[in-house]
Design a protein that fits this description.
By secondary structure, this protein is mostly helical. The chain is built from 6 helices and 3 strands.
């Protein structure tokens, strides 16, 4: 591998991280009612159904302690509720509330507008290339 090739490979993660950082800054500017991590937690619960803290932590790739902090905030806001698990009275299952479902929908709508403002500048052909390229890279990551 040449130095030029190596430099080009290092450039991709930097570009991607810069883009994601910009999206994070836009998230903060838009005044979303929840953080990105809280949104991911709510989306996961919406997709997967009720979960225990340990399951949600694994799904989000966070520690159970971090997820406990996140769920405590969501509980305070009324977006989730905690119930005793049927099979184990010591375990608590986290479920979405109607308010949680509503905040997901509102956030998705606003986030869709933000994402559209960025990606709409790309021709459809470039969008297809991005989907294809990220699909290939993700498959390769999953192999390793």
């Amino acid at each position: 591998m040449t130095d030029q090739e190596r430099d080009r490979y290092f450039e991709f993660p930097i570009l991607f991280k810069t883009f994601l950082k910009g999206l994070g800054q836009q998230w903060n500017k838009q005044g979303f009612p929840i953080t990105q991590t809280q949104f991911k937690a709510l989306q996961t619960l919406s997709r997967e159904g009720p979960m225990m803290v340990s399951q949600l932590a694994a799904a989000l790739d966070l520690t159970p302690a971090a997820v406990t902090g996140i769920t405590d905030q969501l509980l305070t806001e009324g977006y989730i509720q905690k119930e005793r698990a049927a099979g184990d009275r010591r375990a608590m299952q986290i479920t979405l509330t109607a308010e949680g479902i509503a905040v997901i929908k509102a956030t998705q709508g606003k986030l869709g507008e933000v994402m559209h403002s960025y990606f709409s500048i790309l021709p459809e052909e470039d969008m297809e290339h991005l989907r294809r390229i990220f699909g290939i890279l993700i498959k390769e990551l999953d192999k390793k």
